[in-house]
Amino acid sequence: MPSTLTDEATSPTNRGLVPAAGVSLAAFLLFALQLGWVGYLVLAASLLLARWLDRELARDLLLIALGITIVSTISVRADIRWERYFLMGAVLALAVAVPFLVDRFVYRRRAITFPWRGGQRWTTWQRSYLFLVPLLAWLILPFYFIRSGAYRNWPVITEPSEYLRFFVGVNAVGTWDELFFICTCFALLRRHFPLWQANILQSVIFVSFLWELGYTAWGPLLTTPFALLQGYIFTKTRSLTYVVLVHLIFDAVVFLAIVHAHNPDVFPFFLY
After folding, report:
1. Which of 56, 68, 75, 221 is most buried by its number of CB atoms within 10 A?
2. Tell me, what's the pLDDT at 3?
3. How far apart are CA 159 and CA 259, in angstroms?
4. CA atoms of 192 and 198, how far apart (whole Å)
5. What pLDDT was estimated at residue 5?
6. CB atoms within 10 A of CB 107
7. How much is the pTM?
8. Exposed, middle or buried, 23 (CB in 10 Å: 0-12/13-18/19+)?
9. How many whole angstroms separate alpha carbon 135 and alpha carbon 149?
10. What confidence score (pLDDT) does residue 10 get?
């Protein structure tokens, strides 16, 4: 099946939206609500329904389901202990690698790609946005983490090695987010649905994962627009480099804000 949308895929009555929404709902149940067996039942039912409605959609939803299932085998709560650090890294790597390898060597196609070079120049607005992101993050993130108390979902950091592990971990997870939620989930959903539908579906999975990671309280009010914007930006730029750069700039402020929240004397340049 070509990656371009068909007339049926762009139709608002596309029946395939039901099983696709079921996969996103399963991610919400598994990550945000921690309802393991319920989430797996919804995931299995969604795949069976997709198989009945559209075999090609079922193949793509299966790849998303594989990644979701792999991630769900562990807790992704923030933890920088060495054993958890490497375990989470390995599991997240598998969640990207397995769908990619199945797509490439079992399905024998290239539906999942990682276009580091977008093939076009960044516009003036896109370059300007890279300077706007840290300003917005500086204004919003400390207020969110401290006022909501969500910073307590991350461990207190005292040792130099912990600072390094936390910084690397934040950036690694941020990069992984774009590899899985955008280049895998969103890209596969876009083969069947118009932009707005695919973007909402991927954002539910994205935000559910971030909830378990620690963006609780009113965190979804921040993470949902971010997830939707990342999907939109990727559609416009076709550049993984750009969306990763935006994410890492944002995450740099996440790192600074959380460290400051635990240790107010460190990085004392935030307003909240």
Report:
1. 68
2. 42
3. 12
4. 8
5. 41
6. 17
7. 0.92
8. buried
9. 22
10. 44
Q: Kindly report, residue by residue over 193-207, the tens digit of the pLDDT.
A: 999 999 999 999 999
| The pLDDT of residue 119 | 67
Contact indicator for 178, 206 with CB cutoff of 8 Å: no
8 Å CB contact between 86 and 170: no
- Please check whether residue 6 is in contact with residue 190, taking contact to mean a CB–CB distance below 8 angstroms: no
Q: How high is the pLDDT of residue 122? A: 87
Residues 6+ apart with CB under 8 A from 195: 231, 232, 235
What is the distance of C-alpha 146 from the center of its chain? Answer: 23
Q: For residue 192, report the phi and psi dihedrals to the nearest 5 degrees.
A: -125, -20
Residue 6 DSSP class: P
Strands, E assignment, the chain: none
Residue 43 to residue 12: CA distance in whole angstroms? 23
Dihedral in degrees, nearest 10, Cα atoms 34, 228, 181, 13: 90
Q: How many CB atoms lie within 10 A of CB 191?
A: 19
Instruction: Please give the backbone phi and psi of residue 171, each rounded to the nearest 5 degrees, phi first.
Output: -70, -35
- Amino acid in the structure at residue 158: T
Q: Specify the amino acid at residue 74.
A: I
Instruction: Count Cβ atoms below 10 Å from residue 32 Cβ, excluding itself.
Output: 18
